[in-house]
Amino acid sequence: MTESQERSLSFGSAAAAYERGRPSYPPEAIDWLLPSTARHVLDLGAGTGKLTVRLVERGLDVTAVDPIPEMLEVLSSSLPDTPALLGTAEEIPLPDDSVDAVLVAQAWHWFDRDRASAEIARVLRPGGTLGLVWNTRDERLGWVRDLGRIIGHDDPSKDDVTLPPLFTGLERRHFEWTSYLTPQALIDLVASRSYCITSPDEVRTRTLGRVRELLATHPALVNTTGLALPYVTVGLRATLA
Fold it and tell me: Which helix (H) or strand (E) holds 73?
């Protein structure tokens, strides 16, 4: 197993922290990603259901697929009526031509992109939509920039993403918004990152300790019970040729 594969499967041990700390996605981004005619949607790499919840709220027929049982258990606890299937992007457990759209939130970089693209094309109906979305921290604010120095900086561009000729009309758009969370949720956010999960215990402890120190000492954060964490959500969409 490669290091990337190991990291991609590491989230099970931090599923609860992932659910507590990770942000959702802005409605404007979901509006843009989804065609108005979509009814049957696959949330691929669904995790604990951060995006799935927003799709179900829209009255869509949603199927969630993820390779990690612990993540799907969290998803199913909040969405018991939504099909949640164990599977990978390279082997999607759905029949041919079965969905109108495939959305991938915060997961495309974990996939074998050639194999995943072929599988996505298989389950999509002709003319169906593939939508990719990432939340990236907006580090223009002082404390968020300082957080990036501790845990690594987010890349808001995703301009290196390309798709095979199976998909046409690739478009990109950025959406600025703010997530509101508690100090503990910020710690959970960091604890649920793959590099933190897979780090040696002493490295993980040191990293989380530095985040706690930032919370306790930064003028914008000290003695606050609620944080405003700005994000730039990056969306990409394309159509099955």
Answer: helix 69-78
Q: Where are the domains of the chain?
A: 3-240
Q: What's the mean pLDDT in 155-182? A: 86
Count Cα atoms within 13 angstroms, Cβ side, for 106.
24
The HSE-up count of residue 172 (CA atoms within 13 Å, CB side) is 13
Distance CA 157, CA 233 (A): 10
Please give the model's pTM, rounded to 2 decimal places.
0.90
Handedness of CA 173, 50, 195, 114 (dihedral sign): negative
Residue 134: Cβ within 10 Å count: 23
Give the strand pairing for 99-105 and 227-240.
Answer: unpaired
CATH of domain 3-240: 3.40.50.150
Q: Mean pLDDT throughout 38-46?
A: 98
Write out pLDDT tens, residues 74-129. Answer: 999 999 999 999 999 999 999 999 999 999 999 998 999 999 999 999 999 999 99
HEC assignment per residue over 169-183: EEEEEEEEEEEEECH
